[in-house]
Design a protein that fits this description.
Elements (H helix, E strand, L loop, with lengths): L2 E5 L6 E5 L8 E3 L2 E6 L16 H9 L5 H18 L5 H13 L14 E3 L4 E3 L2
Antiparallel strand pairs: 1-2, 1-4, 3-4, 5-6
Length: 129
């Protein structure tokens, strides 16, 4: 049940009362009707993780509930933070692209912005733009 806050009409005294959402929100004590106090809803904001600490990211996301999409969004936010601190280029992402290329004999990652957008040989020309 939600907690509602009431203030004494003449004294600086507050009380928290458990009431159902569908109950009438009135509190009286000894014939004195207390005034209901309205507050902002409390929200839980996600803490800011050091974008350079991969262990903090693993700990934060490992203990949280959410979808794979939430995880990917958080990863992108941290990548954007690293890029902002490093002149627009995320060195962690850049290293991932370089490692991908080394493992695959020079083939570029499909997400790499430096990837060639066309292919041409003596038989065919393909433009991927």
């Amino acid at each position: 049940m939600p907690i509602y806050i009431y203030k004494h009409p003449s004294k600086e005294k507050y009380i928290e009362v458990f009431q159902g959402m569908n109950d009438e929100h009135i509190y009286e004590h000894n014939g004195v009707k207390w005034e209901r106090q309205y507050t902002s809803p409390e929200i839980s904001a996600q803490k800011i993780t050091n974008p350079w600490d991969k262990n903090a990211f693993v700990n934060e996301t490992g203990n949280s509930k959410g979808t794979m999409g939430d995880l990917m969004d958080r990863s992108q936010e941290l990548s954007d933070m690293r890029a902002k601190e490093n002149g627009g280029v995320d060195p962690v992402r850049q290293k991932k692209f370089e490692d991908y290329s080394k493992l695959r004999g020079g083939l570029q990652d499909p997400l790499d912005p430096k990837r060639k957008k066309s292919f041409e040989n003596k038989h065919i020309k393909v433009d991927l733009n």
